[in-house]
Design a protein that fits this description.
The chain is of the alpha+beta class. It has a domain of 80 residues: His-Me finger endonuclease fold, CATH 3.40.1800. It is 29% helix and 18% strand. The chain has a two-stranded antiparallel ribbon with strand order 1-2. The longest helix is centred in the last third of the chain and has 14 residues. The protein is globular.
Amino acid sequence: MMQYCPHCGGSHPRGQRCRCQPRKRRPTAADATRAEREPWRKRYNDAEYRRARQQVMEAQRGLCKRCGRVCARKVGGRWMCADYGGEIHHEDALCDGGGHDRLTLLCKSCHAILDARRRRAS
């Protein structure tokens, strides 16, 4: 018996994982020390960041600042960007000491371009 995959629209044998779904990665020893090596990562989960994200998406009305593509939608009073291809970009990277004060909503491709430029520059 086959089962429909909502991600790719294909079908796969019931009880088996679809080919479009990658296997979950097993935690490594490096994962345990990640918080110590990258202390700035925990700032992604604080209330200030979530509030700032909502303000940025509201101000930009869900549009990518660089190309104008729709990359966020308002669902139940809250802006959501993950399901619509949007990402929040820090103008000043957290790992470089930046904060949540200069955020921009970008689509995935524009965000990848800007991050690649940032990595090349450093």
